[in-house]
């Protein structure tokens, strides 16, 4: 059961990190779209914004991959536990739902 709790803590931390990154990513996406619309000939800010946007996107992808891995480990524990009750299954489903929501939001913003 200790492994389950450790993995849940990891999942919650990753979920929080992803949430914060998605907020920043969404703001960057809006800023990038606005930069494309402007007729300013200075391209340096555009390149910087694009670089930051790509960098944050890569960080989010890595966090989503880690969260997927943690969720898979939680699933293995839940399916292997003789005493895995409704609470454990509900928790696992909740983490899966959060991952799905974050993945959809990331893909939509990208």
UniProtKB/TrEMBL annotation:
Record-level Gene Ontology MF annotations: SNAP receptor activity
GO biological process: endoplasmic reticulum to Golgi vesicle-mediated transport; inter-Golgi cisterna vesicle-mediated transport; protein transport; vesicle fusion
Main subcellular location of this protein, as a coarse class: Golgi
Keywords per UniProt: Golgi apparatus, Membrane, Protein transport, Transmembrane, Transmembrane helix, Transport
UniProt keyword annotation of Transmembrane present: yes
Localization: Golgi apparatus membrane
One GO location term (cellular component): cis-Golgi network
Spans through the membrane: none
Membrane topology category: Single-pass type IV membrane protein
Domain of life (superkingdom): Eukaryota
Family in the record: Belongs to the GOSR1 family.
Name of the protein described by the UniProt record: Golgi SNAP receptor complex member 1
Organism from which the protein derives: Graphocephala atropunctata
